[in-house]
User: Fold these one by one.
Assistant:
Number 1:
Amino acid sequence: MDVVLIRWPAEEARRDHLRQSGAPRLLLVESGAAPPVAVDEIEDWIRVPADEVDLHARVENLNRRAREREHVQPELDEDGVLRVGSAWVPLPPVEARLTAALVDRYGAVVSRESLSRAGWPDGAPGRNALDVHVLRLRRRLAPLGLAIRTVRSRGYLLEWTAGSAVLRDA
Amino acid sequence: MDVVLIRWPAEEARRDHLRQSGAPRLLLVESGAAPPVAVDEIEDWIRVPADEVDLHARVENLNRRAREREHVQPELDEDGVLRVGSAWVPLPPVEARLTAALVDRYGAVVSRESLSRAGWPDGAPGRNALDVHVLRLRRRLAPLGLAIRTVRSRGYLLEWTAGSAVLRDA
DNA sequence: CGCCGGGGTTCACCCAGGCGAAACAACCGG
DNA sequence: CCGGTTGTTTCGCCTGGGTGAACCCCGGCG
């Protein structure tokens, strides 16, 4: 998960997009432009033209912060709010139940059947419903640095975006 | 808790001392010196001489982060006056009661029902009354850097705005 | 080697309901 | 009489949830 450099304010749209996908960003503020207001923990800015050393220092800092995020446990409260550190995302009912199941067995594979039962306690709708909700959930969780990985024909598991293949057992 | 400006690396000892006491710091990096490696999330640095605007932006950013970290929350007194730092707003009766409920469970979701009961202890008016008051409350709280976030189908939640305009400079 | 099929992903589209916002009417206190 | 407060209606957007279909990746098989 590398830090992405973005020209500011020229590439504002790109910044929002990257934020959605949970990538750390360094905004290169063009002279004359007002500095941005930080939208999350993994964003920083620097005035250009900038010293190579300074730029590098800020990039490193962002990288470290992105990595630190992985040591926090995601928490889902009763009101469908998923929190990671100070960041949080509201989850709609179905996705909240799915997330509960995933967080519950965090880092381990949860079968499609379990998920389906978790999401729809009294009968699942079409077979595709689960896939679609997983997709939506993925997008919602991305900004928090969480990813839902597929284990083909087995199920899904929840982990950190930047996380390597390291097994993290309880 | 105001941000402390420190010359770097001249005042390194002072920086460590402030870090111990949990104060937010902005290091003024003298030209030629290497940028510091951040020791925590309430420290930032800027190369001097620096633009006034840039410096201010970083200070504000640190203030916001420090506030979050300390779990500082707004205070509502008996007379319907909401205070945050040195700024304040008078709140009319209904909105004061709603705010009380939100402040009470600060940072957590408050259901529409709870809010409705808080605002109108003996019987709620029409269905939309709450929506409208939340809207008005939002406008009143915005200048203080407070925002009421919607958690769809669950309720509302009070928190600090990402880009608050609250100035608490010396 | 190329075709095929199953499992997954993604997209477009639909409907329903929650919520936001503006505009208006009644009201209350000075 | 006037400005601020409160309640209501109405309109419309956006989101949540669901379905079907196209597509893609990969392993198996002729």
Note: Confidence is low (pLDDT under 50) at residues 164-170 of chain B.
Number 2:
Amino acid sequence: MAAMARVIESRRRNTRTKAGAVLSADVIVDAALALVGEHGAAGLSVRRLGGAIGCDPTAIYRYFASVDALFLAMGDRLIARTLDGYRPGEDWKDNLRTLARRTYAEYVAHPRVAIAVASRVTGGAHERRIIDLVLGELRRAGFAGERAVRLYRSFGDFILAFSAVDADFLARPGEVRAADLQRWQDAYGDVDAEQFPNLAAEAPIVVAHATVNTFELCLELLLDQIEALALIR
Amino acid sequence: MAAMARVIESRRRNTRTKAGAVLSADVIVDAALALVGEHGAAGLSVRRLGGAIGCDPTAIYRYFASVDALFLAMGDRLIARTLDGYRPGEDWKDNLRTLARRTYAEYVAHPRVAIAVASRVTGGAHERRIIDLVLGELRRAGFAGERAVRLYRSFGDFILAFSAVDADFLARPGEVRAADLQRWQDAYGDVDAEQFPNLAAEAPIVVAHATVNTFELCLELLLDQIEALALIR
DNA sequence: CGGTTCTGTCAACGGTGTTGACGGAAAATT
DNA sequence: AATTTTCCGTCAACACCGTTGACAGAACCG
């Protein structure tokens, strides 16, 4: 339950851990984000988290009903970090781009959280903030009502999905990533022109672009189309 | 190793399992896809897979170096299913849309595979086919060289990312999905208009659109923008 | 037929999330 | 201030996970 953490939080006792730590939902979320940030996706487990904080692993279940609930809380914290220091400018398009890039960066820096939360509703306070911001920019662009909501949802889901999948890849062990790049080379370096004429024609470019990040280009395509819609009215 | 499966496959002996099954990479991939298809993302594990096939779980490691390698093979098989029965028409935009929808449907129907493969290169035969198809449509639309490759990569990554994240959500237990919908209601049904003016203004629409699938809209935005680029030349 | 290579089975390792019982410490009540 | 109640950190344990190494029999090759 999302409520659980907060309700209990308000009348929390500050008993100390065997190792001397004082627990709270915030402390746990902080430590969890630090773990995924430093040791990658595989770095987070209940036992390791307990070790990092200095408490018995199962103590975490006094603050979060499950790791899923913990992930949701971490997700909301990521939104907070995304918005931390963000100052909107004049142009709505620039602002949306900035918000997208910040979200992407934060998620890529905390891999496993992204996948856990990308399709979810944290229901947290910061989620409300960022939705309000995006909706605000879209309304400034001239969208309202259902059109604005549909665009906000598309834009948001796009960014979350892209960030999550990219984060997932970047979080994999170096050998896996290297093997993937090698497979690009092997599979598309030399293609049968009879069977795959289009692929063969562009093969060298395909291989050369294996490491190019597509998020930026895809983001630009989407923003341009939104702008076009705004101009049409 | 991806090569491993195939090489060994060619000179395979057909010893029978204790339960009478004859193993092969294809049999294993089939059974694995059936498991994730029927019992959701959590339905697949090496032990359960062995049970479904009728062999010792560890026998699978004679055909795939790891579950990751198995996932890649499953991913390539999903592409085959995507292309199975696909007949391209006249319009490149329609064709791209159809390919996107088919991919989405296949991934959503086999949740865990999507997340495992969305950011990866399977290097399989069918991957080559679909890339050739997409590149072909883009070239028909008037793109070539680097422009074509960049668009193909953006388009592909977008579809895979969106499909994977949607599949991830749909594969979660019903209670989780219900709780998420409830959280939409709770968090955005009644918002403080002072603090979040834009969100408050559109709140009812936001809640009403909680279950709307954004893939279609986002896909249309992207296709429209690609079309616009094609017209500009 | 003999030797070699393959491959299905088995036991085991170290890891995971989660549960339930327990006991002491903090808060609430009297 | 004493007593009751509630909380919450700890511990042991459960059922599961992916993966490894040894082993023995079946299949193949000469």
Note: Confidence is low (pLDDT under 50) at residues 1-8 of chain A.
